[in-house]
Each structure stands twice: as structure tokens, then as C-alpha cells.
Amino acid sequence: MADKFFDRGDNGSYEWTSDGLRLCHSFKSAVERFLNDRFDGEDYDILDAKVILMNALDDVLMHEGIRRRLTPLPDSNPIPGLTDWPQPDK
Fold first, then answer.
1. For residues 30 and 69, what is the distance between their CA atoms, to the nearest angstrom?
2. Nearest-CA neighbor of 23 among 9, 38, 37, 4?
3. 23-65 pLDDT, tens per residue?
4. What share of the chain is helix, strand, coil (3-state, %, to 5)?
5. Is the pTM of this model over 0.70?
6. 14 near 6, Cβ under 8 Å?
7. Contacting residues for 78 by C-beta, under 8 A, at least 6 apart
8. At 16, which helix (H) or strand (E)?
9. Helix/strand/coil for 6
């Protein structure tokens, strides 16, 4: 299973794991660096930047979800013809 980023309680509560918190801070820093590098102190529309960043993040996660659905697991029976598609590099 993938890394666990939240500890979930039986009552529906959740709390960051140390890996989840580290990932969040790392991503936040990457976004801050991107905005600083891109705009270099210039003023920019916050809403425009938010829409662009959210759209980019949605696209990345959507494509990753599709790739995972189309890539057979090593121990599964592949769908006929599926292996004809280019497989992602690991």
C-alpha cells in the first residue's frame, strides 16, 4: 500500500502522520518557490494563480488515476490487449 498520510480514527477523526505533514510542507514550499520564481516580486492576481495551480494539480492527479487503472498489477490477470499499450517507466 502507498504511504499513509493520515491516521484515521474509528469515530471519523483524522490526524496528519509525520510523512503526511512533511509532504504538505514540501509541496507548500514548492508552490511558494514557483510563484516567487515566476513572478519575481511582481504583483499577480491571486484568483488567477489559484485557478491555474488547482487546474494543474487536478490534471496531474486525474492522469495518475487513469494510468493506475490502465496499468495491470503485477499479480493480476491482464485485460486482453491492455499490454499492447506503452507501459510507464518505473
1. 28
2. 4
3. 999 999 999 999 999 998 899 999 999 999 999 999 999 999 9
4. 55, 5, 40
5. no
6. yes
7. 72
8. strand 14-16
9. strand
